[in-house]
Each structure stands twice: as structure tokens, then as C-alpha cells.
Automatic annotation (TrEMBL):
Location of the Fe-containing alcohol dehydrogenase-like C-terminal domain: 183-281
Stated family: Belongs to the iron-containing alcohol dehydrogenase family.
Name of the featured protein: Uncharacterized protein
Record carries keyword Hydrolase: no
Domain Alcohol dehydrogenase iron-type/glycerol dehydrogenase GldA: residue ranges: 6-171
Annotated InterPro entries: ADH_Fe/GldA, ADH_Fe_C, ADH_Fe_CS, Alcohol_dehydrogenase_Fe
UniProt-recorded Gene Ontology molecular function terms: alcohol dehydrogenase (NAD+) activity; metal ion binding
Species, as recorded: marine sediment metagenome
Pfam families: ADH_Fe_C, Fe-ADH
Matching PROSITE patterns: ADH_IRON_1
Amino acid sequence: MRFHIPTRIFFGSGMISRLKEIVEEDFKDASLFLVTDKGIREAGIADKVLSHFPGIPVFDEVEQNPKHTTINRAGEIVRKIKPDLVIGLGGGSSLDAAKALALLATNPGKIEDYEGKGKYKLPPLPVLAIPTTCGTASEVTWVSVITHTERMFKMSIKGPHMFPAVALVDPDLLITLPAPLVASTGLDALTHVVEAYTVKPATFLTDIFARESLKLIFESLERAYGNIKGDKEAREKIMLGSTIAGPAFCNSDVGAVHCVAEAVGSLFDTPHGVANSIFLPF
């Protein structure tokens, strides 16, 4: 039985206020590179990072279901900047993009060259992942999913060095998340744990995480959908449920729902959480 989760997790409401302290603790004097999307910048969430580190370079062109062409273009930028630490801020797309760019920063070629398991020659740069949705758990997993638009296929780039070094998980970053995204990302988290618990690679340890995550999600998702801003307890529970789903499914696996959802997402650019919620049996 194998169970591996090397990411250091800092969890709690208001945790973003400790960002500078956390970076200086593990990455003192590191040069930084922020990866996010335009929606996060427009919502003012990126300012919560930039206020700690004014003037750091930012790539904010990550799209839903990040495209291989976007990652390869950003890869050229990150190679010129040569940062020591990549900060990913956003939903699963931004976090997956950050992990992919950390890989390209230390390895030659294009992101499609690294499709599969452990194809990189040098370990990626460390990543500090800050999720702003309650679904993907990319902040604690070893996979980056990038869409190859010419093949219309979602590539999995993964390896033991792809885990973020640090996950800063602050439920208060969900306060401005629109209700439809609370629903779709929360159902993505639900799909993670249902599949982690029911697939053949599940173990005693992954079941512990899956059961606790499932309990948290069931207790909080409907409440969070109805009042994400005002219901602090629901906000914290759905965020924690999403995060601890990561160790469950990345040490077990996902199943048929994710396979179908990724195929549909690559063909029609369907949001991942929406696709999962459609195909998860009720």
C-alpha cells in the first residue's frame, strides 16, 4: 500500500494574510512568478498576493481548460524571467498551468513533450498553490491537465515532483465565487471522492480521506451554494472537503466519470466541474 502527500498545507480563514511569512519561511529571497487568470485579477483577488510582493511578474492569460499553446507561450516567458518559485492563484486551470510552467522552467521543449508520467529530466520549480474554488484539489496533487487543442485531447502531465511544495488554502477566497461555480466545483470535489472510494486502487488510507471529505461536502455544499459569503462554516467545510479529496484520489484514482468528463471537455471546452456533475450518477 502506497500513500504519498509531500505538500505542506496551510489551511484557515484569513490564511492569505500570512502569505509573505510562509514564502519567507521556505523560500527566503526567492524571485517569484505569479500565474493566474484575468477573472481573478478583475475580482481583486490577485491584489491579495501582489500586496505582499509588489512588482513581481504576472502571467494572467490562463483560460478555462488551459491550452497547450498558452502554456508553451508562457513557458518562453518563465524561462526568460528565471524565477525561483511559481505561485499559482485561481481555480484548477490556473493551478495546473502553474505546475506546467514550473516544469517548463527547468526543462526544454514544449509541454506536450511531457505527456504521461515522469517524462521530465529535471525536477520542476517549486510551486505555491492558492486555490480560489472548492473543487479541483490541484493544490495537493501530482497532475497537471492541459488541453492539446489540435488533438482535442486533455493531456495528463504528472510525476512525483509535480506536487506543489506548499498549498495555502484560505476559505475566505471563496467569498466572491459565483453560486454556479460553487456548485460545479463542489460537485467536482464530490466526484473525486466518490470515485476515489469506489475504484479498485482504493486503500484503507485513501478511504479515510474520501469518507471525511464526503461528509464535509454533503454537510456544506448546498449551504455554500446558497450563501457562500455569509455562511463561514459552510465555506470552511466545502474548502476543506475539496482539499482533502486530493490525497484520496491522487493515491487511489478517479474513474469513468472523470474519463468521460475530460473527453467532453476537450471536445467542447466544457467546464470540468460541469461535465463531472452531468455524468456523475445521481
